[in-house]
Amino acid sequence: MVKDKCILKMEGISKSFPGVKALNNVQFALEAGEVHVLMGENGAGKSTLMKVLAGIYTKDEGSIDLKGREVDFHHPSDSIHAGISMIHQELMPIPHLAVAENIYLGREPLTFVGTVDRKKLESWTTSLFEKLRIEINPWSLMNDLSVAEMQMVEIAKATSWDSDIIIMDEPTSAITEQEVDNLFRIIRQLKAEGTGIIYISHKMDEIFEIGDRITVFRDGEYVDTCRIEGLERSRLISLMVGREIKDIFPKTDCPIGETILKVDEISLPDVFENLSFELKKGEILGISGLMGAGRTELVETLFGIRKKSRGTIFKEGKEIRIEKPSDAIENGLAIVSEDRKEVGLVLKMSVGRNLTLTTLKDYALFGQIMQERSESKSIQEQIEKLIIKTAGDGQLVSTLSGGNQQKVVIGKWLLNNPDILIMDEPTRGIDVAAKAEIHKLICRLACQGKGIILISSELPEIIGMCDRVLVMHEGRITGELDRKDFTQECIMHMATGQCLEE
Amino acid sequence: MNLSTIIGKTSKFGIYIAFVLLCVVLAILSPYFFTVKNIINVLNQVSIIGIIAIGATIVLISGGLDLSPGAVVAVAGVMAAHFGHPGEYPLIVPVLVALVTGLVFGMANGVLTAYGKIPPFIVTLGTMTIGRGLALLACDGMQVIDLSDEYISLANSEFLGIPILIVLFALMFAVFQFILTKMRFGRHIYAVGGNETASHVSGLNVNRIKVIVYMLAGALAGFGGLLLSSRTVVGSPIAGQGYELDAIAAAVIGGTSTTGGMGKLTGTIIGALMIQVISNGLDMINVPSYWQQIVKGSIIILAVYIDMRSRNKGNN
After folding, report:
1. What span, in angstroms and rounded, lies between the C-alpha atoms of A384 and A27?
2. Number of residue pairs across A and B with CB atoms under 8 Å?
3. Which CATH superfamily includes the segment(s) A247-332+418-502?
4. DSSP assignments along B223-237, one per residue
5. pLDDT digits (tens, 9 = 90+) for A194-253
6. Which chain B residues are within 8 Å of A371, Cβ to Cβ?
7. Domain limits of chain B?
8. B196, B202, B313, B316: which to substitute to probe chain A, counting the most A Cβ within 10 Å?
9. Using a CB-CB distance cutoff of 8 angstroms, which residues of chain A are in contact with residue B185?
């Protein structure tokens, strides 16, 4: 490789959808053996550009130069055969097929009679997994894997094509820290072999750890490309949002009041047993831990989504019964769930309809007949208050960006004026600007005297936002820290089960 | 405004435009098509299937599926006819019998799908088969005849010069349109069909909503059975064959999503009319009835295909 190291050059790419110009004359170039980070807020056009490159969308204008040849993809297989593979953000497993069958789908090795050669399929998969240091049985059904394991299979699948270019769209959104380390090791290995990697992520720490160069998009336009070495974080953020964001974690100190919620020896069979904790008015209580530690299950049980086998819950000293979500809502609880698309929103409904879903009764005459004027007034107020970017309350919520979708979920619960707000990964997959806004909102709510439970896998978020943190490991609370004692190391140790408490 | 935005804007009304075009073509081919008499005839014929299709629509919007209404039409018709002989019971008795029959079937469908977690396809396939058996059992396989004049006039009289069936159909449409668009319960139907988990977490009683939806659909089918037995002057155990599929077809042609959460009653009405107009129009231009089925089937597929394409365009 004496001459041009550049293996991919996209120039003047434009792509429109009815009513939206998703990409406007953007450019992107990738060298062999580099990790090129693509960054921008949600809706900036990163995913659209990658889908053009992967042959899922067809570009309107512009040229794609792949290793010196002009190419034009019309179908995902065009792109795969040209040496480009993609790890999609949304996993697409075929649940009732085995891991090995998923990886080599459509290119299974055959025996001379034309049936699938299971031995060869297994040996291919085994050697692939050995190379990547993945420990998953090739014959496990995809259905039986955890989300993190599926993500690893997806990564293995992308590398199995021996592609020149691998696109990774938020590959770490569902995996544990150890697996992230393993992924980075794989990426370095691929780099050394001359593979070019396009890496999309919102996580700053990752970008600085693994990236060589970064290209920033904003509102469908190209902003800049620079080397990551020596790049200031604040400069990167301002490139992305087009303005300075002083603080992603605008923690303000609010007076912390009396206990608002007391959970006593709550149990969920096979997940956790006899967990107890308290939450105070105005307090932001963090729950930290690795995936599978039982954090989400704990709050879902608290909210009545899962059935507890025992345990009592007290609100302001009085015992309350929560058997199902509507009980929790009546008692002034609200939950912003981890999975906004499956649990938080009804994607087929409009922004407005989603916002009033839990509070419909407030706008119904005789409990049934909708008073649309007062309803739409509340909706408008909520859209303005939370700065939800939407064309109108009739817009389908599925067409909003992730950050704005999350604001709709939060807005829905705030209309019910809850005393206790559970937030499960409220900023996952959301761009920095929206993140900062949501953090500000959480602080404001705490200052109004609400009790807030914040689950997050991002330690900086826990450390930056919480007054107190509970650390969970395998269904147990392994530690509790006050704000003054927070350190990343300390929380990590507790989360991995190595109790540091004296 | 370029071509693609025009298509994007009009695709919402695709089914209406197609319906108008169809009528224009038929009017050109047959001078009789656009007479008042024929229009009344078409509306009269569509009414019963239309009433049942309203039920099919709300079930589909709620994320369910109901294959039983055809059988319910038969059971309700036979049961009501038993109480409809001259000089035995007041008219209200057979009416209530038909409605209660429908409600019972609806309740069974709802409880088994919602609380029993059995897929609605299976549950309603079962209740459909049971219903057909019950209909035969209830009359020992013989048609129930000798109905009172009041009973017969239920579906064969006029109200202000308009055939009563059309009036009843319009009334049912108005009631359910109000439920779907103006009532809290209507919102619940859309929410549950759009995302059951999210609805549950938002505090909705998902199971109860489902049961009520199936019961309403059952009542509509029972009512349809009553009207059909009145119109045909006989309670027949084989009445309503294939009505469930026509009802689903009407809803789906009218843009109701088979995966739940989306659909409009106005679309269903047009869908039902479309099916009726096709057979009426083809009759009129002397297309043999064998061909009519083939045309009908093709139009169902085509309508849904066009609808899905326009939807996908809108989503991107």
Report:
1. 35
2. 89
3. P-loop containing nucleotide triphosphate hydrolases (3.40.50.300)
4. HHHHHHHHHHTSB-T
5. 999 999 987 788 889 999 999 998 878 899 999 999 888 878 877 876 655 456 677 778
6. none
7. 39-310
8. B202
9. 368
